[in-house]
Amino acid sequence: QVPLVESGGEWVQAGASLRLSCVASGEIFSTRGMAWFRQAPGKEREFVAAIKWSGRVTDYADSVKGRFTISRDNAKNELYLQMNGLKPEDTAVYYCAADSTYYSEYVRVRVSHYDYWGQGTQVTVSS
What is the pLDDT of residues 90-104, one digit of tens each? Predict the structure, then answer.
């Protein structure tokens, strides 16, 4: 198992910014792509952003492009999601996840590509 622990979720008003963090086990964090997903009540878990194990390649869902930024610090075993210009539709539980493949050449976006998950952190955006 790769323990993943998210933090940073809060209740905020529309337009605010938040930074989510995810601390991972150092043993294999630096060898795996990482991603953020989110799940709103009554909806399926959806991709938000992903970053290659090297940190050099990222990908974003269209709904968050230009507002969210994913980054990682392999020296600290930490993953981040900077969220700016939050909207009510961003309200969800946010999960960090580790790719099941070591040193993947691709940034992957499907839930099925990730086999380690944190417990989630709640982000609520009011209008």
Answer: 999 999 999 999 999
